[in-house]
Design a protein that fits this description.
heterodimer, A: mainly beta, B: about 0% helix, globular
């Protein structure tokens, strides 16, 4: 399977700060997604981004497929951004491989 | 509300007991998945069903069985629960290659 490394593992931010989360893949992927798990455990799909850049409000993501990494940018962070951010990728078939996540805490 | 419904939300089993985790989606999605999440780890795929009538093993299928009862429902069965199966279980569905929708999870403890 694919190895997925996420960094940093933990991040503490003051409200209003910006951050960049990184995801590296051991092999090329043709389907890459970012997810947010809130403190109550609910998982939300943020982006489908196999390549290029997408933006959704204060969040944006960039994937450089040729170099097998993806970045998630959070601008003007809010306490509601707290939780764990996962990236996941597929190279063949239907099996997503998830990273171990970046745990984000935003302090008011 | 449209989405993925999992039952039960919490369960405690004794070693050797069996149980079935239920999952239903009302979005007419083709593909459904069962994942487990252990502390400090990402999600690992147990089984998936790309379409009604088909099921395939994922990364960690041992000790589990699944049934895709119809397009809406995908159940996960533990025939003889073991402490190593203590975990949080998530069901998910997707219409295609993106747009995952997850259920709220089942927290299972095996003692």
């Amino acid at each position: 399977g694919i190895q997925v490394e996420q960094s940093p593992p933990d991040l503490i931010l003051q409200e209003g700060a910006n951050s960049t989360l990184r995801c590296n893949f051991s092999d090329s992927v043709n389907n890459l997604q970012w997810f947010h798990q809130n403190p109550w455990g609910q998982l939300i799909n943020l982006f489908y981004i196999p390549s290029g850049t997408k933006q959704n409000g204060r969040l944006s993501a960039t994937t450089v497929a040729t170099e097998r990494y993806s970045l998630l940018y959070i601008s003007s962070s809010q306490t509601t951004d707290s939780g764990v951010y996962f990236c996941a990728g597929v190279n063949t078939g239907n099996q997503f491989y998830f990273g171990t996540g970046t745990s984000l805490t935003v302090i008011p | 509300n449209a989405g993925v419904t999992q039952t039960p939300k919490f369960q405690v089993l004794k070693t050797g007991q069996s149980m079935t985790l239920q999952c239903a989606q009302d979005m007419n999605h083709n593909s459904m998945y069962w994942y487990r999440q252990d502390p400090g780890m990402g999600l690992r795929l147990i089984y998936y069903s790309a379409s009604e009538g088909t099921t395939d093993k994922g990364e960690v299928p041992n000790g589990y069985n699944v049934s895709r009862l119809n397009k809406r429902e995908f159940s996960l069965r533990l025939e003889s629960a073991a402490p190593s199966q203590t975990s949080v279980y998530f069901c998910a569905s997707t219409p295609g290659i993106y747009g995952y929708t997850f259920g709220s999870g089942t927290r299972l403890t095996v003692v």
